[in-house]
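Dear all,

This email documents one entry for the complex benchmark we are building for the journal club exercise. For each entry we list the sequence lines for every component of the assembly. Then comes the predicted three-dimensional structure of the complex as a token string, followed by one or two observations. Please use this as the template for your own entries, and keep the labels exactly as they appear.
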Amino acid sequence: MSGADKQARSIGVGLIGTGYMGKCHALAWTSVRTVFGDVARPRLEFLCEVSEDLARERAQALGFARATADWRALIADPAVDVVSITTPNAFHPEMAIAALEAGKHVWCEKPMAPALADARAMRAAARASGRVAVLGYNYIQNPAFRHIEALIAQGAIGTPVQLRAEMDEDFMADAATRFSWKSAAPSGYGALDDFAVHPLSLIQRLFGRVERVFCDMAKPYATRPDDAGAPRAVETHDMANLLLRLEGGVQASLLVNRAAWGRKGRIALQIFGSKGSILYDQERMNEVEIYRADGAASGQGYTRILTGPAHEPYDAFLPAPGHGLGFNDLKVIECRELLRAIDGAPARVVTFDDGLEIERAVHAAARAFEAGRWEDVGALDG
Amino acid sequence: MSGADKQARSIGVGLIGTGYMGKCHALAWTSVRTVFGDVARPRLEFLCEVSEDLARERAQALGFARATADWRALIADPAVDVVSITTPNAFHPEMAIAALEAGKHVWCEKPMAPALADARAMRAAARASGRVAVLGYNYIQNPAFRHIEALIAQGAIGTPVQLRAEMDEDFMADAATRFSWKSAAPSGYGALDDFAVHPLSLIQRLFGRVERVFCDMAKPYATRPDDAGAPRAVETHDMANLLLRLEGGVQASLLVNRAAWGRKGRIALQIFGSKGSILYDQERMNEVEIYRADGAASGQGYTRILTGPAHEPYDAFLPAPGHGLGFNDLKVIECRELLRAIDGAPARVVTFDDGLEIERAVHAAARAFEAGRWEDVGALDG
Amino acid sequence: MSGADKQARSIGVGLIGTGYMGKCHALAWTSVRTVFGDVARPRLEFLCEVSEDLARERAQALGFARATADWRALIADPAVDVVSITTPNAFHPEMAIAALEAGKHVWCEKPMAPALADARAMRAAARASGRVAVLGYNYIQNPAFRHIEALIAQGAIGTPVQLRAEMDEDFMADAATRFSWKSAAPSGYGALDDFAVHPLSLIQRLFGRVERVFCDMAKPYATRPDDAGAPRAVETHDMANLLLRLEGGVQASLLVNRAAWGRKGRIALQIFGSKGSILYDQERMNEVEIYRADGAASGQGYTRILTGPAHEPYDAFLPAPGHGLGFNDLKVIECRELLRAIDGAPARVVTFDDGLEIERAVHAAARAFEAGRWEDVGALDG
Amino acid sequence: MSGADKQARSIGVGLIGTGYMGKCHALAWTSVRTVFGDVARPRLEFLCEVSEDLARERAQALGFARATADWRALIADPAVDVVSITTPNAFHPEMAIAALEAGKHVWCEKPMAPALADARAMRAAARASGRVAVLGYNYIQNPAFRHIEALIAQGAIGTPVQLRAEMDEDFMADAATRFSWKSAAPSGYGALDDFAVHPLSLIQRLFGRVERVFCDMAKPYATRPDDAGAPRAVETHDMANLLLRLEGGVQASLLVNRAAWGRKGRIALQIFGSKGSILYDQERMNEVEIYRADGAASGQGYTRILTGPAHEPYDAFLPAPGHGLGFNDLKVIECRELLRAIDGAPARVVTFDDGLEIERAVHAAARAFEAGRWEDVGALDG
């Protein structure tokens, strides 16, 4: 298809869920075509929420044409070509599989599902459908992170030998925070599946597969007050420390904590190689630091790079360097990559295949924690 | 008007110019209603560029319904309620005045105009029109900067006694950069009007009027190569150092440099008061640092605050703190404030009245540089 | 003894070894009495090096009265009250035990010894002697770290729940660095005993004992060139990742790497508690950051404290805050604490008892690495 | 003289004053020969304080052999070869001139004297004496600052075009601080002579002479409480903003504030050149940042260099980089340079000639403030 054809073409969008990520998706669909000139123009066709009233209100707020409380109706709608799924994780499998079976492309938030079997089923549905199925691991889209990938690929730090990753926020840090679904077992393991999947998506881009894993999980607070104020035993672990060995022999650690007072959106990487090292922290998402072991010792140090038009695709947003992208811009880039995938163009996305690999590492970590020893992640089946 | 009415209402937008700021305006118009629920929904009606072909191409790219190469046609169009003017500065007066006279609201990029008389005429037109006329000083919209305003208003640092402001980028830092309009006298003074106006808009919000000013301007390079590579004398000053006294007696300095290698989007503030101090740097636009002189000396230090939902209106973009807004988000906030002003609601904008104050300080600085002594900015006429 | 008596009294010093740490000890002995008014004045009596010539040269350079190549002569000398032992680790046991048996006080560099049995013997000798036996874990002396201890003791961050520690330098980072004793098995495990002991000394101060440990060690380079340039298999591990559980239930991680390009003297701590968190990095040794979860969310952030006279014993060096202590100053403080211990005053030192605890954690980590499972450190014998 | 001779030789030291700087001098004299092997060994001969009792007490504390309350006796003593003068500024001229006339070398704290005529007389005495006369501008001794000098000399940032300097502390920031001699006119101008002289000593090393100056001084508080608590008019200015033009055409600014809450020992430099820029802050005195405009835009950024053995003379203190020097170490380096100057070796010192240049810039600034216009510093007489 020619560029002009692509530009002329539009694509129908359905959105299920309008919380934190739902609004992010809506914003991305709204502005992707204005930011990027090379993709189809989205038509915001259909929105689904838990009640008709709420759906109507949210559709008007977010600029969608029609509203429903029946997500199956949305998926079945012929005007809808691609479905954004931003509901709680437990709903992902059923919705994503149904959408794929209905011939829709799917943009599903991460993680795939609490149960590994469900994630496998999602991947199987994606493969069977021939449709594009993408997960919302937006941090891989940051121009700063893309630059890290390019640096490593170019050998700027030689052969990587060690990785340290951390992800921390503090929304569970207050001991007085009430017991909620996040502290209940059905929600998953805790920080392990809530947080670790994000740095794992970055690790996957940089180094490929996790080969084996050790894990220690802990609870900062044994109980949390229930709605009556009585202590209720917490069932999930807000803190998890993982040791990893990656494809190619890289030694790695991954520390995640959602009860880390002071941390708001930290995803920190330290990557050590045979010729240098790279530092990154999502809380300063427009910066990358690189140390190169060359030249005189007196001149060596970490170079702090501010992203700019030289770091793709920053220039689609701004022509001036150092002016800064924000979190929501990452979702716009992700949306553009999704549209490129739908067009059959090379695209930078986390597919359901990729996502299943991440889930497998998470579940291996949980087994390692139970057993108190290394766990092999194992070769990907199928 | 009720909230529901506002939401139902739409507003017709015309855009003149589609460069750096033109695209920013387009993005803001596109997403403002999805980000903020409390404003009218923009209709992207009409776009003007220098040729019909370019205008059509840009209208399609930016999602505008119609295109023209005749800006007067755009201004005259009845479907257009508000006009974004993002052309080179020299065009601002004619276009803004015409738009206001045609009964349109105006959103004009900064600065107002190279000549003070033109800025005065623009203000007069705004006053006569009864329409909303707003300048694109978007840095005042940053939740981080809003928080600084609130802190000072609350007395968090006591009585302010000194301000230091800097604005630096490096797009003119390469001596080999060809002589262009930016180095020619008709473009203005150089860094003084290109850069100083931005920190002056922040100073105005914090402290009110500039009372007197001293100025030293300098050229990093006496000549730049012309298109044939021959040296041509540079007519503007890429560097300017200003000393100021502000309303209320605050001593201030303002250093601006568009040839500052390494600086990409720096707008740095240091505000010292009788009970503490505040630091800010636009290159890390999601951070504010405050020092409070209270409690034990052993515990005093700068507290680095990451903006979040507690800092209005961050929460319209994201519910999670520390995830980061970007430059383009500031323009979305500015657009929302413009729409509030049009609705007659209290709005946080730099009006043409405010803008003229900024221009007057700039021109006083230029006179001070010529005379080598303090120059009074003088009371605002009218 | 009265203060005046203490001041009048002097103490005879012997120094064995004049390398990196030997010079640090010499400087500390030279200036401790001028910095601190409350200790005996050292007399620099005797210095030992590997040859008579070198010993004489170093004695003159470092201001010692006499020189010898026979360390037993130094230890036997009646004018020597306290012996600084700064030789390679393998010599520590024999020298320290002999000195203690000769009735001397001992200031021995860390770690105690490569073999755990030797460390035990050192501790036994110290106990039997009734003399002061102190290890050179100088990082605990930093006023910044002392402040961290005080903050935690005061409950400034509530109950600690997680600790992350890292120690990294890059002197082994170059793959071209020749095979040396540091890569040979007799030197010990590698980063584990070379580096981990330092953060373990800090952990011990803050939280007490390590209860159990898991460990993963790795080699960045399988071989290093021997003196002829041929590849020789590396026998030690330059990188080690430890997971720990500490007394009181704190979950901890400890990552050490002496092949970490770009890191020069990093010892980083992140301490998360129920009411806040604390950050520290030895590369910026005059700074501590604390986050307190109190007050309005809009005002919360990390407060970066610059050490000053309010942080004991900074004021012995300088009356002005923020002017900065250096690494060698830590050794001066350590020397003062040693002198206080000798005077029978309360002192802040790492005794041979404390040191043995650190060694036991290290050896438990090595066992855990071999076994691939958690290892209990076990209760301290005797 | 051969190296061995130098090492054998000793030098007799007299110290007048034992406050902040007096102790710094004493520490420097105590440890200089242990740190540096290439200088004479100081003998701490004679100490002077305001009373015999205090003198004796301080002599014992600081390790001086004899004590007196008569500074003329100290100067006249034949065992004294060099005199450290660390008394209040007003005493510097009489003491320094007497010492020089008595044939002693002089190490005098900065600034020279409140009155320019006195500074001139000091320089004349130094010239007439043929002795070494050095001022205590220790910040030029920092290995980090030396590296900046070397970088500029090597052309690492091309031709310098602009300098920004700031020096700030907060010991006068509290409005409740009692009126003291620092607020009384006889002490001088305020921040101008108290602070600006330090960055001026750095500017002098980097760029030579100040050619002209403009100045704005201000008082954060018009009054301070006297000892009875009544308001008393402040006579000095705690804040001063200077604009400068330097030898060679560099445009400069110099902002100094001793009432800057939060700043403890800040001396910040920003140096912009035609090929890059350099950043420095004394509060992080072991770091230098350099931006080089070369290579791909995607890789450009500020490189943060931690000082180490590659930055002379760090290696005299420590063999490991990044471990950090402290403020007192700068005084040790200064002492060594003084001893080199006494030996007739090339030395890095601020002579009384250099110091007079600094004083002349300060007094020109004061005149500029009075006149409200640029003031030429003028050619150095004699």
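Observations: The first helix of chain D runs from residue 3 to 8. The interface with chain B takes residues 157-158, 161-162, 164, 166, 170, 173-175, 214, 216, 218, 220-221, 239, 241, 243, 245, 251, 253, 255, 257, 259-263, 272-277, 279, 291, 293, 300-302, 372-374 of chain D (CB under 8 Å).
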